[in-house]
Amino acid sequence: MGKRRDDVETGIGGTFYYQPQAPPPPLYPPPREPYTSWLMPLVFVVDVLLFVLTMYVNDCPSTFEEPNQCLFKDLLGRFSFLPLHYNRLVGPSSSTLERMGGLRLELVQEGEWWRLLSCLWLHAGLIHLIANMVSLLFIGVRLEEEFAFWRIGPIYVISGFGGSLMSCLSALENEKTGIVSVGASGALFGLLGAMLSELITNWSIYANKCSALLSLMVIVALNLAVGLIPGVDSSAHIGGFISGFLLGFVLLIRPQYGYVSHRHLPAGKTRKPRHKWYQYLFLLLSLISLIAWYAYGLSKVLTTNDMTSWSNFKI
C-alpha cells in the first residue's frame, strides 16, 4: 500500500494527488483605449467651407467676361463655376485662388511665406476637392485612430509644407513663375509616406510583413502615377511624400514586439528594451535629413529671382 501523507496537500482518504502548476500566462500590455478621430474630420469641414468661401469670392457672374457661360449660373448664382474650358476641375479662377492664399513663387520670395501653408486648405475645383477629401477620410481618419491627433496632425501640416517647398523649388529650377498651386495633395502624400516608414521602423510587430509592404507600395505607386497627368503638380506630391516618410520614423515609432511597461510587469520579470537600436538610428537620420532639406529649400526659395511670368495654376 502507498504511504499516507497527512499534510495540507493530502487528498480524499489521505491519498496524495499531484496537480501540476499551469504555465504563467504570457505578458501582454493592456489594450489601449479606443480613440475617436476628430482632427481629420475637422480638416474635412474646414476645406469644404473654404471652397464654398472661394466660390463666393470668385463670383463668376460678376467677374467673368461672359457671365452666361458660368456653370449652373441660374442655380448657384455667385457660387457658380467657371466654364470647363477655363477650369476643367469645375472651380474658380486662378486669380481668385491667388487672392485666397494660393502658392505662387514670386509672392513667397517677396515675403509672403505664409502661402507655403495657406495653399494646403484651398482647392482648384469641385473634382479636386472631392478626390482629396475621399483620400483624407479613408487614410487620415484611420491613421488618426491608430496614432492620435498629436502625431498625425504635425505629419499632415509639415508634409504639406514640404510639398509646397518642393513645388517652389521645381518652379525655381524650371524658371517658371505665375503658377498658382493649391491643394492638400502634398499633405495626403505625406500620410502615405508616413505609413511606409511606420511599417519599416515597426517591422518586428507585424505578422504578414511582406504582404503589408507590397500592398502599401502598390498604393503609393498608383498615387504617385497621378502626378504624371498634365496640370498636376507632381513636385508637391513628391515633396509631401518624402516629408511624411521621414516624419514617420520620428513620430510613428512604436515599442518593439514583446515590450511591457514596468507598470504592468510582474515582480522578477525582465523587461525588454522599449525600442530596437535601428529605430533610434532611423529617427536620428530622418530628423537630421528633414531639417537639412528644409533649411536648404528655404534658403533657395526665399531669395529674389527675376523671371518672366506666365499664368496658370496647378493642383
UniProtKB/TrEMBL annotation:
GO terms for molecular function: serine-type endopeptidase activity. GO terms for biological process: proteolysis. The keyword Hydrolase applies. It comes from the Eukaryota. Coiled coil: none annotated. InterPro entries: Peptidase_S54_rhomboid-like, Peptidase_S54_rhomboid_dom, Rhomboid-like_sf. PANTHER family: RHOMBOID-LIKE PROTEIN 5, RHOMBOID-RELATED. Serine protease involved in intramembrane proteolysis. This is RHOMBOID-like protein. The lineage of its organism: Eukaryota, Viridiplantae, Streptophyta, Embryophyta, Tracheophyta.
